[in-house]
Amino acid sequence: MPGISEFLDNLTDPQWDTIVRVIQDLQDSVSPDRLESLRKFLASLNLEIDQVNRRRDALGQKVENIDVFLQVIDKSLQGHPDLEVELFKSILSMWKANLRVEIADLRPSEKLEKKYDTERKRELLIQIQALVSNLNVELRQAHERTGEGSQTVCKREQR
Q1: How big is the chain by its Cα radius of gyration, in Å?
Q2: How many CB atoms lie within 10 A of CB 3?
Q3: Half-sphere exposure of 53 (CA within 13 A, CB side)
Q4: What is the H or E stretch that residue 42 is in?
Q5: Is residue 153 part of a domain?
Q6: For the chain, how many structural domains are there in total?
Q7: Digitized pLDDT (tens) for each residue of the chain, 159 residues in all
Q8: CB burial class (10 A; 0-12, 13-18, 19+) of residue 71?
Q9: Is residue 155 one of the residues assigned to a domain?
Q10: Which of helix, strand or coil describes residue 99?
């Protein structure tokens, strides 16, 4: 990265101190603990999304079962109207409608948005981690080339 090298070669001591502090802040942001925390959060979100989807599937199966049974009732009512059976059919239809509302309410949209945002953040942190590593190398090389600059260069990495 010749552009970075030239830039770093021309830094004053206070500018060196500033860039080192920025890099240390970036390193804090991409610590292995932070990345592991995001990985665990993503795993828990995936479990929650799977649970919601399983619940939706189970409710969907109940709706299908009611549909099949309503067809049986309809066939039995053909030519033989029965008030009690009609009432039972009505109750089943209301239950089916309630199940459909519950299925609609169980969409994991919010969890999917969180998952997407967290995946983007994790990817950004991984990219920052690579950037910090490259910048540390460039800082060291610039420090060695110039023999100047702050003595704090890359102290964090040396620990």
Answers
A1: 31
A2: 7
A3: 9
A4: helix 32-77
A5: no
A6: 1
A7: 457 777 777 778 888 888 888 888 888 888 888 888 888 999 999 999 999 999 999 999 999 999 999 999 999 999 888 999 999 999 999 999 999 999 999 988 888 899 999 999 888 888 888 888 888 888 788 777 766 544 444 443 443
A8: exposed
A9: no
A10: helix
